[in-house]
Amino acid sequence: MSSTTVFAPWLALALCMARVASAQGPPPAAKAAAEDAARANNDFYNYIFIILASLTLGMFFWRVGMESVKYMRKITCVNNDTQNYFAVPSGKWASFKKHLLYAPVLGKRHNKEIMLSAAVNVGTLPTRFQFLFLASYLGTNVAFCVVSITWDGSYSSVTRQLRTRTGMLAVVNMIPLFIMAGRNNPLIKWLNLSFDTFNLLHRWFGRIVVLQALTHTLAWMFGTAHTAGWAAVAKSLTAPGTMKFYGFIGTLAFVTMAIQANSIFRHAFYETFKYTHIALAALVVAMVYVHLDGLPHKKIIYVVIAAWSLERLTRIATLIYRNVGAGGSKTLVEALPGNACRVTVDLARPWSFKPGQHAYLYMPSIGLLTSHPFSVAWSEEAEKPDLSDEKMSRQDILAMQKTTMSFVIRARTGFTNSLFKKAEASPDGKFYTNCFAEGPYGGMHMMHSYGTVMLIAGGVGITHQVPHVRDLVAGYANGTVATRKIVLVWIIQSPEHLEWIRPWMTSILAMDKRRECLRILLYVSRPRSTKEIHSPSSTVQMFPGRPNIGALIEGEMENQVGAMGVSVCGSGALSDDVRLACRERQHDGNLDFVEEAFSW
Known about the structure:
Blueprint: H1 3-24, H2 28-77, H3 84-87, H4 91-101, H5 128-146, H6 155-181, H7 186-191, H8 195-228, H9 230-237, H10 243-260, H11 263-268, H12 270-291, H13 298-323, E1 330-336, E2 340-346, E3 357-362, E4 371-375, E5 378-381, H14 394-400, E6 403-410, H15 414-425, E7 430-433, E8 436-442, E9 452-458, H16 462-478, E10 485-492, H17 502-509, H18 514-517, E11 518-524, E12 540-544, H19 549-558, E13 564-569, H20 572-584, E14 591-595
Helix pairs in contact: 2-6, 5-6, 5-8, 6-8, 6-13, 8-9, 8-10, 10-12
């Protein structure tokens, strides 16, 4: 009897058992391991949402607490000229602000950009509080990527688990990533955090997502290469219409976004970066959507698409509402001394303006489809029409309800330089153009609860502070704010820069009780001669050179009334100097620091 005849029955039985096992699924141990892995992935999926929801809720209660303190302080001090109780600092709170909340990661540099050369900008440094949050979230994501992975298993098993986990986390993190990118991010108002802060978080969340997506792709590639060879990897990645192909294109788009969003390229070619970034983001969403076909996590992409679409639709609706109808928006651009322009926009519809707000301006004749944020330096509403006058038509009523907003824009590069050049070359240094204003944004840091307010501006940063001055002087005269002392410090290079805000400052100087509460200190850093430096009055003084920020703040704290708020808007170097001066004096008095900045 041949060996084939002897082993034939056993071979047939083995084949039958293999078919049965194949029909019944993997062995119980393998099935249990797969179920445990799926359960762990689902847990970490939920943990990310729990962490983000907890952080949002915590920041919301923080905001409610801070606003409650300010409100109680305001109503307590409205009729109190001394406000001694609120001038005394809390030791622990002062230390927290000095060493964590206001402190940069190292030294005093925070908003001053790090320049490798005149043309190479590598960005700014976060505060310690921001750094701790980012490091914690990054560390949490790293832990979630590796915890409960059976590292002692087979190579294929490890790469499969790592691939699944990192891919799932990358998709989950796309939700906060896209929400933080929008100008109309609702968390800005709910949490009282600036768009500048969310811009920082957006960049770092993006890097986390890119690293997870890249790990997801590499884990699949090495796992496949281990079992089937690199030829199989190349075949899968180059086969159009497959899940692997779309996922690989999405990963390439992610990596490209991370490279082109680097500070060096972003600052050097901002307009190109912006539109390329949007196009790549759309490509990523489309590729991930197809890549997840048939998987439960595909529903997350619907949320991402909904968040992005809603934000864009909100912007379009805002533009239409503010600028279309009732005769449309009309814009006057005037050239000013010192390479600047005054842009006055008559909006089609009223705008309830608050100090500290900004708007994005679109001027198709200067920069097609480009928009740039600018602080609203002045706003005026037309007198309300007499609705009892039957002779007035609906068009007349709408025309009289318009709001006029003014901006001062200094020529830098690109859009702002083109705008100034056109105004300078126009007859009488002015021209009319079509302009669409999108907003309002910002206006979160009102200064009504501070007995002493110090507003510091550098150059065109004065546009942020002028509305606060008008608001506080009016509030002092009306008895609706706690403020008793207002000090405006403006640092300019030349006296001709005073023309930027002359008409508005004339209006402020004529306000009721202005002399009782407002002092203006002007510092001219590059005067052509000493004759240019003269002080009009004891409340409006002019000095040559740059101020000693620390000495100015210390001088005001010696006679501080109530809590003191210091706001700065200017260059990064100026903001860092003011931040340092405020940190060093946290235990000398109740002192809060507010920085207004646009990062991009």
